[in-house]
């Protein structure tokens, strides 16, 4: 019903696995952690529907980063 209302506005509806609230909650949990030296940053990517962790190229094989 809600999706149909959105379609009527001309917008495209895309069903995603995680809500914005879930993604933001996950990012908040990551924010509270101590990042290994190989982690450069992290952010919510709403288009990919993921929380993305950016790693330093030289440390991408670091076991602490991969855990």
Automatic annotation (TrEMBL):
GO terms for biological process: proteolysis. One of its GO terms (cellular component) is extracellular region. One of its GO terms (molecular function) is serine-type peptidase activity. The keyword Chloroplast does not apply. Pfam families: Pro_Al_protease. Signal peptide: none annotated. Keywords: Hydrolase, Protease. InterPro entries: Pept_S1_alpha_lytic, Streptogrisin_prodomain. The keyword Signal does not apply. This is Alpha-lytic protease prodomain-containing protein.
